[in-house]
Design brief:
This protein is α/β, with parallel strands linked by helices and 582 residues long. The chain folds into 2 domains: 3-43 and 66-217, Phosphoenolpyruvate Carboxykinase, domain 1 (3-Layer(aba) Sandwich), CATH 3.40.449; 222-290 and 374-541, Phosphoenolpyruvate Carboxykinase, domain 3. Helix content is 28%, strand content 22%. The protein is built from 16 helices and 29 strands. The strands form 6 sheets. Strands 1, 4, 5, 6, 7, 8, 9, 10 and 11 form a 9-stranded mixed sheet that branches. Strands 12, 13, 14, 15, 16, 17, 23, 24 and 27 form a 9-stranded mixed sheet that branches. A 5-stranded mixed sheet has the order 2-3-19-22-18, with helices on one face. Helix 2 runs antiparallel to helix 5. It binds oxalic acid and manganese (II) ion (MN). Manganese (II) ion is lined by residues 223, 245, 272.
């Protein structure tokens, strides 16, 4: 018996399913599962021609987003989970959460889903095995990962896999837990069937568990998109960018160049997760461990993300969108014409008052369907990064773009980034929180140590990527966005590559290096001088007000905060002339 078979047997003895099915990932297997889900009402087939091969799933109304307050790191020591994670003692988790798995699959089928994160055969890929009692999860994992026979072949009967046990349980938030055991590299999830809570390859493995593996093994698991930017003379740059959930990573990754005719092209490598490694050449190399997109649907339209619109025309699982009586999916931002007789995300006739689609409605679709994928997206070696971009959603304070002075300053900028919360997780929306590296909900260990790991990685890179910070979301006094965003964000990326190649200069400011705006590609934008100034403004007082907030945030890490972070904060404070004790 292989180690995977042994674990499956153990789990079956505990959860007592009626049947155990090992998934092979084939089309026939998927067709059968989809048909069963259509029969039992889990899925609805959408319009045969207009949405060929697409289905709609409505999740339980109390199960519509990641539940960060029910997500735990069960490290042996509480300190190792750190102040930004919920912690549970492993023995307590095994006992209390373990009880919820006893007999939970009685009357159900247990699916064993072997999967690979990363391109097949890549030395950087990793195998996971998810056990689940949800057919919907199986169908999603088939799209999001390389799943089934190919994964078992890669595992080859060995024990190098991350086990993940998932059951929808009774879907009650009172009995919902997403628990990570970083020392054992084990994941348990019960009580939710939704996205990051249930598709264990994504946030649970590829970020939380992978971040601890990366710390131990000298690499990085990050919440980043990766894109490829090609200039007319053939110069190619790979750029990774970290933004909090639902802040436009998918849109940026699939950006359509407004300068395509001039030979400036953008292609997609990944939209959510990047595994990064120092290469023998001293550069940082990136792989997208996923095989599909689990993207936010509302706001996706022909103007904001035409590539995503093409991608999700067929063979897409939609979750919690609205639908017309003849099966055309609809959501806010798709177009201005909601079809007559629209049924909302909860299956009720839409009353035109609330949202038709849930704000965190999602599409699950294979990357192979995306017209903008780069031929390099499955390169087993990954792609070398020229730049890393961090960004938040800030109505005020942060300018459109600035560059960090060097790697350590970049780590500080990323560690202190703030962003307004979105609908991707349950809880209040629009509240500014510190979200270091956009990893606040996804770092599987003490974030103080994580900052230290970032600093250490810098010492392994003789040619580190340049680090930038962007804010597409700054507003004017009437709360209108100052920057057009979407495809026009390319203009900011072009400034970055000009900086990297030494083609343009920059202005010193207390927070970092700012563009000389006349060196940016702004032709043709309806942006007045006054708007441009507002967009780029660095207000000393606003920034000085950030200093004590950052200090308080840093203080939460106590002795786990690297000294370099204090040095950076002190330097910022001095540059601002802030009368604040740091
Ligand atoms: C996601 C998220 O689903 O970050 O990617 O919430
Ligand atoms: Mn994400």
């Amino acid at each position: 018996m292989t180690p995977a078979e042994r674990w499956v047997e153990e789990v079956a003895a505990k959860t007592r399913p009626d049947r155990v099915v090992w998934c092979d990932g084939s089309q026939a297997e998927n067709d059968k599962l989809v048909e069963e889900m259509v029969q039992d009402g889990t899925l609805q087939r959408l319009h045969e021609k207009e949405a060929a091969g697409c289905t709609l799933h409505r999740s339980h109304p109390s199960d519509v987003a990641r539940t960060e307050h029910l997500t735990f790191i069960a490290s042996r020591e509480k300190e190792d989970a750190g102040p930004t994670n919920n912690w549970m003692a492993p023995a307590e988790a095994k006992e209390n959460v373990g009880k919820l798995f006893d007999g939970v699959m009685k009357g159900r089928t247990m699916y064993v889903v072997p999967y690979v994160m990363g391109p097949l055969g890549s030395p950087f890929s990793k195998v996971g095995v998810e056990i689940t009692d949800s057919k919907y999860v199986v169908a999603n994992m088939r799209i999001m990962t390389r799943m089934g026979k190919a994964a078992l072949d890669q595992l080859g009967g060995g024990d190098e896999f991350v086990p993940g046990l998932h059951s929808t349980g009774d879907l009650s938030p009172d009995r919902r837990f997403i628990v990570h055991y970083p020392e054992e590299r084990l994941i348990w999830s019960v009580g939710s069937g939704y996205g990051g809570n249930a598709l264990l390859g994504k946030k649970c493995f590829a970020l939380r568990i992978a971040s601890t593996m990366a710390r131990d093994q000298g690499w990085m698991a990050e919440h980043m998109l990766i894109l490829e930017l090609t200039l007319p003379d053939g110069e190619v740059h790979y750029i990774a960018a970290a933004f909090p959930s639902a802040c436009g990573k998918t849109n940026l990754a699939m950006l359509v160049s407004p300068f395509e005719k001039q030979g400036i092209q953008v292609r997609t490598i990944g939209d959510d997760i990047a595994w990064l490694r120092p290469g023998p050449d001293g550069r940082l190399w990136a792989v997208n461990p996923e095989a599909g997109f689990f993207g936010v649907v509302p706001g996706t339209g022909p103007d904001t993300n035409p590539n995503a619109m093409d991608t999700i025309r067929t063979n897409t699982i939609f979750t919690n969108v609205a639908v017309s009586p003849d099966g055309i999916p609809w959501w806010e931002g798709k177009d201005k014409h909601p079809p007559a007789g629209l049924i909302d995300w909860q299956g009720k006739p839409w009353d035109h008052k609330g949202k038709a689609a849930h704000p965190n409605a999602r599409f699950t679709v294979s990357a192979r369907q995306c017209p903008s994928m780069s031929p390099k997206w499955e390169d087993p070696q990954g792609v070398p990064l020229s730049a890393i971009v961090f960004g938040g959603r800030r109505a005020r304070v942060a300018p459109l773009v600035f560059q960090a002075r060097d790697w350590n300053h970049g780590v500080f900028v990323a560690a202190t980034m703030g962003s307004e919360t979105t609908a991707a997780a349950t809880g209040a929306v629009g509240v500014v929180r510190r979200d270091p590296m956009a990893m606040l909900p996804f770092c599987g260990y003490n974030m103080g140590d994580y900052f230290g790991h970032w600093l250490k990685m810098g010492t392994k890179l003789s040619k580190p990527p340049a680090i930038f910070h962007v804010n597409w979301f700054r507003t004017d006094h009437e709360d209108a966005f100052l920057w057009p965003g979407f495809g026009q964000n390319l203009r900011v990326l072009l400034w970055m590559v000009d900086r990297i190649q030494g083609r343009v200069g920059a202005k010193e400011s207390p927070i970092g290096l700012l563009p000389e705006t006349d060196e940016m590609h702004l032709d043709g934008l309806a942006l007045s001088q006054h708007q441009l100034e507002m967009l780029m403004a660095v207000d000393r007082e606003e920034w000085a007000a950030e200093v004590p907030e950052i200090r308080a945030f840093f203080d939460r890490f106590g002795s786990r905060l690297p000294q370099e972070m204090n040095v950076q904060l002190e330097a910022l404070s001095k540059r601002l002339g802030a009368a604040v004790a740091v």
